[in-house]
Amino acid sequence: MQVRRPAVAGAFYPADPQELKELIRASYLHRLGPGGEPPPEYLSSGVVPCLSPHAGYVYSGPVAAHTYLHVSSLRNPELVVIVGPNHYAVGSGVATFKEGRWETPLGPVSVDAEAARKIVESTGILDFDPSAHRMEHSLEVQLPFLQHIYGEFSMLPISLGFQDIETARTLGEGIANLLEGRDAVLIASSDLTHYETAEQARSKDSQLLNRVEALDLEGFYGTLERLNVTACGYGAIATVIQACKKLGFKKGELLKYSNSGETTRDMNEVVGYASLRFV
After folding, report:
1. In the chain, where are the structural domains located?
2. What pairing do the DSSP bridges indicate for beta strands 107-111 and 154-160?
3. Which residues contact 68 (CB under 8 A, 6 or more apart)?
4. pTM over 0.85
5. Domain 3-278 class?
6. One digit per residue, pLDDT tens: the chain, 279 residues?
């Protein structure tokens, strides 16, 4: 059995389980957070797609908490699919995990081997490659938030070195086919504009998020190129846009936008963070 050890515990989030739980709870109650802890008052069924940031919890945790308050409306998911970028360009360009578990300070998360097999066979573009996941934080940092909600669940991790529109279309279609008729969570893991002023970041990010809310895949890539938006997980966002279109979702709704300057107090070089759901 393959075991993926935490790569950023003690750096992006606490390695101590109790400290980690306390920081997650604090993220919900933070002035930039949603102001309440899971579960919300409403219940969901079917697929719950969303966008969540993946920086250190002290920077993006409160924004991520908006996403996970929404996610928690689905009480018993059959599967959680997380798509994120491969920041280190290690391993296959489109990679999943064949079997086994991922460990965090809150315990193990099982990989759904059957879902992994199906997505590899149906799309023809994914490889089983644990090396692509070994150092990558974009998927890992989502897991403790999910464990705080669900305890145990099964996941399908997908890491993208290739983030072009054709990869997003093919993968999005495959994910939609995999999830149709199931109760599942689908997460695009991405931060937005990097290391520009808060004003510049908000301007660029708002235009990009408008295309996400419209489920406009071509406009999304056009805005990325036209404005040179340095969103690191743009392929993950595009993949979820395509899956949402295939599954019959009509639009995205922004839950929260903020940036790292709200924590560091340096508004000259920020990273943008967004929480968004699809309905």
Report:
1. 3-278
2. parallel
3. 38, 52, 145, 146, 148, 149
4. yes
5. alpha beta
6. 899 999 999 999 999 999 999 999 999 999 999 999 999 888 999 999 999 999 999 999 999 999 999 999 999 999 999 999 999 999 999 999 999 999 999 999 999 999 999 999 999 999 999 999 999 999 999 999 999 999 999 999 999 999 999 999 999 999 999 999 999 999 999 999 999 999 999 999 999 999 999 999 999 999 999 999 999 999 999 999 999 999 999 999 999 999 999 999 999 999 999 999 999
